[in-house]
Amino acid sequence: MKYLNLLPSLLLAILLTGCEKTNKVRENIKEKIVRESYRPTFHFTPQEKWMNDPNGLVYDKGYYHLFYQYYPDSTVWGPMHWGHAKSKDLLKWEHLPIALYPDSLGYIFSGSAVIDKTNTAGFGEGAMVAIFTYHDPVGEKEGSILFQTQGIAYSLDDGITWTKYDGNPVISNPGIRDFRDPKVFWNVDRETWQMALVAKDHVQFYESPNLKDWEKLSDFRFEDTEELGVWECPDLFEMTVEETGDNKWVLIVSHGAGAPNGGSGTRYFVGDYDGTTFSTNQKSSQWIDFGTDNYAGVTYNNTPDGRRIFIGWMSNWAYAITTPTIKWRSAMILPRELELVGSDGQYALKTPLVKEFEDILKTVNSEDLGGNPPLSFNYPELQQSKISFEITTLKSFKIILSNDSDEEYFINYDHENAKFLIDRSNSGLVNFSPKFTNPSPQIMPVGELKEIQLDMVLDASSIEIVLNNGSYVVTNQIFPSEPYTNFEIQGVDKNEIANFRLHKVLKAVSTN
Ligand code: FRU
């Protein structure tokens, strides 16, 4: 259906037969159709051009605001702006004008936003205040290492128009090359603003009564045994462990390189924060997502009911600028709602999809698919669907998602070795970057599972695999040359599958 508007051009090309030139035209049109079909229908994408990190995630007056790293002049990274959209349900996004433009202090890099309810900054009661990194390209070119500083701007009309603070920068560079991505939150215990900021290979914490004057509180470092890229996009927040009622603090950090399955990825630490210092007795890295395409994720400020909603950029710096789309480049992951589980010093985040997603699902009668549950089926709209089931016997199995051009995406569960192996090496277009398929397979260690409940969400050019309600998650981009329509599971019998459901996911595309 979504190819319909391109049909006339295709027909024209088919009619003009005979010469090499026509064949070329036909090939080009086909290529265009395929690449435009990579546009997701229920994940956020910019209307056009380049996007990376989510920024300024803040809820206000019934809307989730999503700002994002945006370059309006190209589909590759360039001078950064903050794009803007808002949504009532985290799924249908309304595109809004660009919020922040580069100025004489530099490009507008990643950061956060708060609602200044009591007018601590003096910009106005309820002002939306953005706290971001200025990246000065001139300073960088001249060889200075002081080119990243922190600035603020405010909006009194729900994020539509913005005024930069004339006292910027509010935090100058202390002599650290990578010094960025401020996440500001209101610390309810201390009744003050606090900030997590990354500084090359550690996190720094700051405090301010008014968002303008910042004082450094402490540093957090971690003895890494593995080689990880520069620290980016931190977040710090308190969570209650449901089973035990314990309160713990979670520190999120993204790394430009060195993630378990190659390139960039996001990890977290669970520990304690006394209002000035964060500490953890965690011994090794814990990762938010074992796929390749969930980066720079942070959580919303000011949500109703204190929900901890997380959005990441669905790409990877290892190949982000080469993914095969034409008009726009890259999407956000489906928003997830974080939960903290565990006890006795052993904690883990679960990242299920937000419950709002259930509202755009339409059940497909599985009898029509060839049995309930079907071990294999063909469904024309598989790439706009959610497939869910439980495997009731703990044993190895294999899932294959494929199209009629022999392109396939595999999910293998190796019970003996307690790991999932995910392979996109023959998933479609892959050779736009050698890093897209390295490593193959991607490996997700899962420890000893007590149950297996799987949700798989496909949307045009992505797959999100959610195991056991978010205990383990894999997010991957894929670029099949025609949509996947075939599903098959091997290694289990029908009576070992419970609660099989196939849902079509309704379009939740942006409203303008
Ligand atoms: C993370 C990041 C941030 C930076 C932004 C620049 O993807 O590198 O550290 O602020 O992107 O676009």
Strand content: 35-45%
- What about the largest sheet? 6 strands, antiparallel
Shape: globular
> How many domains comprise the coordinates?
3
Bound small-molecule species: beta-D-fructofuranose
Give me the number of helical elements. 3
CATH superfamily of the largest domain, please?
Glycosyl hydrolase domain, family 43
Distance between the termini: 19 Å
What strand order characterises the main sheet?
24-35-26-31-32-33
Under CATH at level 1, the class of the largest domain stands as: Mainly Beta
Give the strand tally.
35
Radius of gyration: 23 Å
Low-confidence stretches: none
CATH architecture of the largest domain: 5 Propeller
Protein described:
By secondary structure, the chain is mainly beta. It folds into three domains: 33 residues; 302 residues, Glycosyl hydrolase domain, family 43 (Tachylectin-2, Chain A, 5 Propeller); 146 residues, Sandwich (Jelly Rolls), CATH 2.60.120.560. 6% of the residues lie in helices and 43% in strands. The strands form eight sheets. It has a six-stranded antiparallel sheet, with no helix packed on it. It has a six-stranded antiparallel sheet with strand order 25-34-27-28-29-30, with no helix packed on it. Strands 4-3-2-1-20 form a five-stranded mixed sheet, with no helix packed on it. Helix 1 runs antiparallel to helix 2. The structure holds beta-D-fructofuranose (FRU). Beta-D-fructofuranose (FRU) binds next to strand 1, strand 5, strand 9 and strand 13.
